[in-house]
Design goal:
Layout lengths: L6 H31 L4 H7 L11 H7 L2 H33 L6 H13 L4 H10 L7 H4 L6 H12 L3 H9 L4 H12 L1 H16 L3 H6 L8 H12 L9 H46 L1
Helix pairs in contact: 3-14, 4-8, 4-11, 4-13, 8-14, 11-14, 13-14
InterPro entries: MetI-like, MetI-like_sf
Subcellular location: Cell membrane
GO cellular component, one term: plasma membrane
Length: 293
């Protein structure tokens, strides 16, 4: 069945295509610039811009970064922190969201009120640091994983998703003699893959890009995540030329800083770019169902 668009429909579609093309351009161009710049000599990039000459390209930045043992260790630490944080966040959000979605659950309004209040009022950095210190988690992996593992927004998303699950499924299972635990693990969880993948992606990306908690709670550099290692490398190479008498040495340090900067952005973004396509179908469905119901 063909549908004939009116002139107004075609005009609106044209405007939509133009806006989408502009959005794609705004997103793609910086990504391409960083990717290409990570392989180019900084002087050639500044003087010529993008070049087709192979002599203007180099992998020196990647060699400098990958030859650093702290980089590999930070990469593995970041993977561990992000994966553990995502698993813990999903588990806590699901276990908290499901009871709050059940009608007749005693105290659900009270618990929701308490949770929502914490979205607007928090103790702040110093009280949180003191709590982490009193629990003996300073300079341990738990100081990075546990604080912030429970997000009220994630709990609300999970609760909203569970409210959209047909009640008839649970009622039919109860008629067959299934317990609440059996209903949850055998019926609700298999139907909750979209929202669980969305929560996992949110948590993984947030933890992967985070360095502040590690900077506050960790002293042992062997526990540093990748973002904190990259920050340390960039700061060490960003030396003011006025502090160095030898101008040639200052120029070389500046060149190395530029090489490392772009290469580090690519390396730190690569896992997320590889992971997202596999989560995309769950991401779209989970966000829509978990936010519109």
């Amino acid at each position: 069945m063909s549908f004939k668009h009116t002139r107004l429909d075609r005009f609106i579609l044209f405007i939509n295509y133009v806006l989408l093309a502009l959005a794609v351009f705004i997103v793609v161009v910086p990504l391409l610039y960083v990717a290409v710049a990570s392989f180019m000599e900084p002087t050639a990039l500044l003087n010529k811009g993008f070049s087709l000459s192979l002599s203007d390209y180099s992998i020196e930045g990647y060699k400098l970064i990958l030859s650093n043992d702290a980089m590999l260790r930070g990469f593995l630490n970041a993977l561990f922190y992000s994966a553990a944080f995502a698993i813990l966040t999903v588990a806590l959000s699901v276990f908290a969201g499901f009871p709050l979605s059940v009608e007749g659950f005693v105290g659900s309004k009270f618990f929701m009120t308490v949770l929502i209040i914490t979205m607007f009022f928090g103790g702040g950095l110093i009280p949180t640091f003191l709590v982490v210190k009193q629990l003996g988690m300073l300079d341990t992996v738990w100081a990075v994983i546990l604080p912030g593992a429970v997000s009220v927004w994630n709990v609300i998303l999970a609760r909203t998703f569970f409210k959209g699950v047909p009640k008839e499924l649970s009622e039919a299972a109860k008629v067959d003699g299934a317990s609440e635990a059996r209903i949850f693990f055998d019926i609700i969880i298999p139907l909750s893959k979209p929202i669980m993948f969305v929560l996992a992606l949110y948590a993984f990306v947030g933890q992967w890009n985070s360095f502040f908690d590690a900077m506050i709670y960790l002293e042992n550099q062997k526990l540093y995540p990748l973002q904190l290692v990259l920050r340390s490398i960039l700061i060490q190479n960003q030396i003011s030329p006025e502090m160095i008498a030898d101008r040639a040495q200052a120029a070389e340090l500046k060149r190395l800083s530029e090489i490392i900067k772009y290469a580090s952005i690519v390396i730190s973004s690569l896992p997320l770019l590889v992971m997202y396509p596999f989560f995309q179908k769950y991401f779209e469905k989970g966000v829509l169902v978990g936010s519109l119901k």
